[in-house]
Amino acid sequence: MEINEKTALTETETTENTPETDAEAAVPTDEEVDPTDDSADKEAYMNLTPLQKKAVNKACLKVLKLPGNTMKGDVLEMTLVVDCALDKEYICERAKEILTSLRSEGKSFLNLRLNLVKWKGDEDFIKYVSSYPDVLMGRTADEKDIAPDAVKYLDNLTAQLKKFYARSRIHLLLLKEEYGCENPLAVYENLNPFLHKKMVAVLPDATIINPFTVKEPDPQSLPAL
């Protein structure tokens, strides 16, 4: 956050002839300003409102009611994808509040097998099995994971989810933005026929994307068989 510097008085200047107004007195000095305070930059990452939490819960529960996607047994397998272009604190807090809210909706999310996928770069993924207690303790992301300037497309992400996490009943994605793709046909094939219905993406402004769709390629653009 940029801070405007105040000009200090020289030895020959005094404040005797410049009476201090209330407004001037309220201006913090350099010593009072914390240059590391980036709270203003984090205002965009506010907690979800009750209505927004309800909307996320509704989208996730709808996925679990899809034909052929109902739970088998007592354990729900879920994949959580976190976009490392986001702020670490945002990732940890948003994951915590969404999972906590989902668990309050019913027993479906109480016994959870959680696959965590950290999406650092277009082809850079960190994947391991996590847990709800780990999310509660803020272990969803580390500072070393954050890569805000990485250029990414949906091609490799959807391929990873299709190849390694097709068994998950639901894929929750915390994304910074709606990403494009380099090969629309490949992404379309990765998402269909069923993966796109199981994906629920949440953006920083609480926009929910479900089902996760990519426009079907023009048949004329498809390669000849």
Account of the protein in words:
The protein is of the alpha/beta class and 225 residues long. It has one domain (50-215): Rossmann fold. The protein is 29% helix and 16% strand. The protein has helices at 22-25, 50-64, 88-105, 132-136, 154-164, 184-191, 195-198; strands spanning 76-83, 112-121, 124-130, 170-174, 199-202, 208-209. The protein has a six-stranded mixed beta sheet with strand order 3-2-1-4-5-6. Strand 1, helix 3 (88-105) and strand 2 form a beta-alpha-beta unit.
Task: Report how far apart the termini are.
Answer: 55 Å
Strand order of the largest sheet: 3-2-1-4-5-6
SS class: alpha/beta
Tally of domains: 1
Order of helices and strands: HHEHEEHHEHHEE
The strand count comes to 6
Parts with pLDDT < 50 across at least 5 consecutive residues: 1-43
| Shape annotation | globular
CATH topology: Rossmann fold
Count every helix, treating DSSP H or I runs of 4 or more residues as helices: 7
Précis, in short:
The protein is α/β, with parallel strands linked by helices. The protein contains seven helices and six strands, in the order H-H-E-H-E-E-H-H-E-H-H-E-E.
Secondary structure elements and pairings:
Layout: H1 22-25, H2 50-64, E1 76-83, H3 88-105, E2 112-121, E3 124-130, H4 132-136, H5 154-164, E4 170-174, H6 184-191, H7 195-198, E5 199-202, E6 208-209
Parallel strand pairs: 1-2, 1-4, 4-5
Antiparallel strand pairs: 2-3, 5-6
Features of the shown structure:
29% helix; single chain; 225 residues; alpha/beta; Rossmann fold; 7 helices; 16% strand; six-stranded mixed sheet; 6 strands
